[in-house]
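Anyone up for a design puzzle?
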């Protein structure tokens, strides 16, 4: 059964010119692109998106980073999309990521790790709704 999930190509990857290559990796892995946009977040918007991490020590650094440049939020789908995207992305720390994963290929650190992906169905639902209105999702 097809499942939708949410992903963001992060500012570090966009600045380095990796957005197209990352999108190609996602499509090569069998994901169908449902919606994508090119935007920049304000600090307040980044704080709203990452509100679940507000009490964590990295919250300020994370929201500063995510509002530092252009991002590509997207909705993608395929069977087992959430788990498959998590596998394709690789470990948050690119030094610990498996060979061939997006983070191993394109990330430079735990903080600048190239891509975000939802970790569960409820998270995906919130994250999709944060960036995309119903009419944008066909």
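Challenge accepted. My sequence:
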């Amino acid at each position: 059964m097809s499942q939708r999930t949410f992903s963001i190509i992060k500012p570090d990857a966009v600045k380095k010119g990796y957005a197209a290559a990352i999108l190609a990796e996602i499509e090569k892995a069998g994901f169908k692109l449902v919606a994508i946009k090119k935007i920049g977040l304000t600090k307040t918007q980044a704080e709203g998106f990452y509100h679940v991490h507000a009490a964590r020590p990295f919250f300020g650094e994370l929201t500063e980073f995510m509002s530092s440049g252009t991002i590509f939020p997207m909705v993608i789908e395929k069977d087992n999309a959430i788990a498959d995207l998590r596998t394709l992305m690789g470990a948050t720390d690119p030094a610990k990521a498996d060979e061939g994963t997006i983070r191993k290929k394109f990330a430079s650190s735990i903080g600048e790790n190239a891509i975000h992906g939802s970790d569960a169905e409820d998270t995906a639902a919130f994250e999709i709704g944060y960036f995309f209105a119903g009419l944008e999702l066909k």
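A detail worth pointing out: Strands lie at 2-9, 32-36, 39-40, 70-79, 115-117.
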